[in-house]
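One such shown below:
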Amino acid sequence: MSPSSPLIQLTDLSFGYAERVILDGITLSVPRGKVTALMGASGGGKTTILRLIGGQYIAQKGSLTYD
């Protein structure tokens, strides 16, 4: 990957438990070499996003790429 490409890229990512949708159509780019904060309300899906990036969860739709 080139130095200008993102370290982590989520594109149209969706995740949920059975009928309960947690994330729907999330697109996020984490730049390489930058400090990035993930902020939001309690229950907003922050930990779920981190678990998807870490491989603990598998997205139901969309793509997640990292270097």
